[in-house]
Amino acid sequence: MGVFKIKINSFFSILISKVIIILSKKLFKGGTNFPGRVALKLDRNILNVVTKNYKVVLVTGTNGKTTTTNMIYNMLKESGKKVITNNTGANLKSGITSCFIDHFRFTKAKGNCYAVIEVDEANVKLITEYLIPEIIIITNLFRDQLDRYGEVYTTLNKIMDGVIKVPEATLVLNGDESLLGDLDVPNKTFYYGFNCSTNENKNVDINADAKFCKKCKNAYSYDFITYNHLGKFYCSKCGYKRPELTYHVDEIKELSTSGSLVCINNSEYYINQPGVYNIYNGLCALSTAKLLGIENSVIANSLKNIKSSFGRQEAININGKELKIILVKNPAGYDQALNTVSLDNRDINICILLNDNYADGRDVSWIWDVNFEILSKLNIKKTIVGGIRLYDIAVRLKIAGIDHNKFVIGENYEEILKNIEHCDGNIVYVLATYTAMIDFRKFLHTKGVIKKLW
């Protein structure tokens, strides 16, 4: 093994940040962004140093980043490759810097290592300024945190500001996402998507995000829609249509609250995560793994045994009751989570936590675009509401037709946990926005319910 020759400021940047990382893990059970901020203050080009010798896969987009990142990471790991990832979801420049510094060694490792990195949409340009990824993945584009990102077209522009800096990177794109077709870039591009319908719907919902042709602004037509505005689209006016797919779902053989059995490019796979949106995540991970030369048997085995990322369909046992935590942050993702919950024919309990912190988006008016009405058809024994904006979500659920006589107001996590422990039935679905999910998991960790916080 050789030794990295680095500048003195880079050396101290790494060394001090490593000390902070160790202290953060021991004292605060986390602290994934602060060490990176310190490192960048000491050496603003530190990413140039700590990313050397890595083949980097960047995963961005509105929904599915964490799960897709986790899937690709596990496929690489199971194939025997050396690989790192920012599995805590710290996807800003500072968190990504912390991840690379945490794994940095002053001696050069033999051979190439892989880094599968989730990156916030607005931070892609900040990362590609310092490294050239092997692959950039864009999962989808939905309205999310409008106060931060604006509309979906603005989000696309933020991502493309980063893509144009690295024409050598291969793009893996969701072909069913109309905003991602026919991009004006020289990058080698592969598309994945569905060649079958999950329903008989061909009419886009009034609240869908990208309903109009990106070229001529005419309303799209669809051969089928998977969810929101995703599907096999075409414009009857100018001829713009979905690009050719390299990797595609040809049949959905089974769809349950446990997972999905699907046929992809004439091979059968079981994806051990429920919902159509997780089929997209699995398909994206498979597409990337194929491009990285991973054997099909490894891909299939990994998808079959994949475990939930924290807060993403995470199952926890509380005194014999199954608690399933699902991160929800925008109308498109929320609808898919509710559709997955609706597959459960048992008596169920619902706990909905709504926050309006910066990381959630200050404006919570988006909850009125969520199809909560689907819950009125389910066998719900108890509905627990909590979070900073608990009364907003309580009103929304009442308007949706949920029996308000079965509502329980959870003013704090102690009350919420007590109500969960005493509810009827064996399953409780917790649908929480980002900071509510993080805080609730931290609370459960202090109670010993969750052993591993990150």
UniProtKB/TrEMBL annotation:
Which residues, if any, are the signal sequence?
Answer: none
A GO biological process held by the record:
peptidoglycan biosynthetic process
Q: Recite the UniProt keywords alphabetically.
A: ATP-binding, Cell shape, Cell wall biogenesis/degradation, Ligase, Metal-binding, Nucleotide-binding, Peptidoglycan synthesis, Zinc
Quote the protein name from its UniProt record.
Lipid II isoglutaminyl synthase (glutamine-hydrolyzing) subunit MurT
Domain Mur ligase central: start-end pairs = 59-211
Keyword Metal-binding present in the record's keywords: the answer is yes
Concerning its family, UniProt says: Belongs to the MurCDEF family. MurT subfamily.
Catalytic machinery residues: 363
EC number(s) on file:
6.3.5.13
- Enumerate the PROSITE patterns for this protein: FOLYLPOLYGLU_SYNT_1
Q: How does it assemble?
A: Forms a heterodimer with GatD.
List ligand-binding residues for Zn(2+): 213, 216, 235, 238
Which reaction equations make up its catalytic activity?
beta-D-GlcNAc-(1->4)-Mur2Ac(oyl-L-Ala-gamma-D-Glu-L-Lys-D-Ala-D-Ala)-di-trans,octa-cis-undecaprenyl diphosphate + L-glutamine + ATP + H2O = beta-D-GlcNAc-(1->4)-Mur2Ac(oyl-L-Ala-D-isoglutaminyl-L-Lys-D-Ala-D-Ala)-di-trans,octa-cis-undecaprenyl diphosphate + L-glutamate + ADP + phosphate + H(+); beta-D-GlcNAc-(1->4)-Mur2Ac(oyl-L-Ala-gamma-D-Glu-L-Lys-D-Ala-D-Ala)-di-trans,octa-cis-undecaprenyl diphosphate + ATP = beta-D-GlcNAc-(1->4)-Mur2Ac(oyl-L-Ala-gamma-D-O-P-Glu-L-Lys-D-Ala-D-Ala)-di-trans,octa-cis-undecaprenyl diphosphate + ADP; beta-D-GlcNAc-(1->4)-Mur2Ac(oyl-L-Ala-gamma-D-O-P-Glu-L-Lys-D-Ala-D-Ala)-di-trans,octa-cis-undecaprenyl diphosphate + NH4(+) = beta-D-GlcNAc-(1->4)-Mur2Ac(oyl-L-Ala-D-isoglutaminyl-L-Lys-D-Ala-D-Ala)-di-trans,octa-cis-undecaprenyl diphosphate + phosphate + H(+)
